[in-house]
Automatic annotation (TrEMBL):
SUPFAM superfamilies: Zn-dependent exopeptidases. Its cofactor is Zn(2+). Belongs to the peptidase M14 family. One of its GO terms (biological process) is proteolysis. Keywords: Hydrolase, Metal-binding, Zinc. Gene3D superfamilies: Zn peptidases. It comes from the Bacteria. It comes from Oleiagrimonas soli. PROSITE patterns: PEPTIDASE_M14 (PS52035). This is Peptidase. InterPro entries: AstE_AspA_cat (IPR055438), Peptidase_M14 (IPR000834).
Amino acid sequence: MTESAPYPIGTPGRPWGADEKAQWLSRQTRKRSYADDVVRRIDALRDRFDVSEYGALDYAPDRHALYAVRNRHWRDERPLVLVTGGVHGYETSGVHGALQFLEQHAEAYAGRINLLVAPCVSPWAYERIHRWNAYAIDPNRSFRENSPAPESAALLKLVAPNRDRFVLHIDLHETTDTDESEFRPALAARDGVPYEPGEIPDGFYLVGDSEDPQPAFQQAIIDAVAKVTHIAPADAHGEIIGSPVVGPGVINYPLRKLGLCAGITGARLRTTTEVYPDSPQATPAQCNDAQVAAVIAAIDYALADMG
């Protein structure tokens, strides 16, 4: 294997300091509009749902409001469900899948669940099609007390009053070719460690919680998504992104230990979706549909599981 060229910022073997982070930030440019793509669609939901601003990101000169969407007429006896998207702003179908679910399917659960949706947790990164925030921090490794990521801290504060009442949390993500061409090399450079190339799985998969994997729940989602798009196979080592495959299209991580979004509630049913938008076998519409199918299957499983 030939060695890859060094990342254009920093010195190999030396973690970034303030100068390198400033250089990295200077290279980030706005490529799409959170207001046009996301906020406009959220505003269109206001006649059917309760929309609230749960925080804001102030990355001068930009300010982005953070929005949560709830179904109306919450009742304490109903199961509480959390759907999150856009924790990594570049993972487009996570955002648009959450919005599509709200627009087309959420009302079908009226009177059955209390639904809380945060469609775009990281709007600054959404606009720049990036994994990190403006501080070169990955929000999806930062869901912990005293989080250094404002995106993570705001979402933690949103869910805190009901943290132990959630029965389900599904966090919508993608795995893309840029994970290997940009984001993992940048991570290695930032941390001053060697970059070790990995393999991008072709297809949809789930990341469950190794502390409480809930295999039947994960399988129900895989079965539903398989009707929409293909499921990622294991690689030659029986793994997906370096983790053992524990069921078709399913791997497990220690969600809370790693500071991942899917571990922020006390929900027994929790998972992270991963679609592959760069696959020749998938379209952007299929990726959005796969996210929606995953959310529907997860909620239906939770309702059936409660009897």
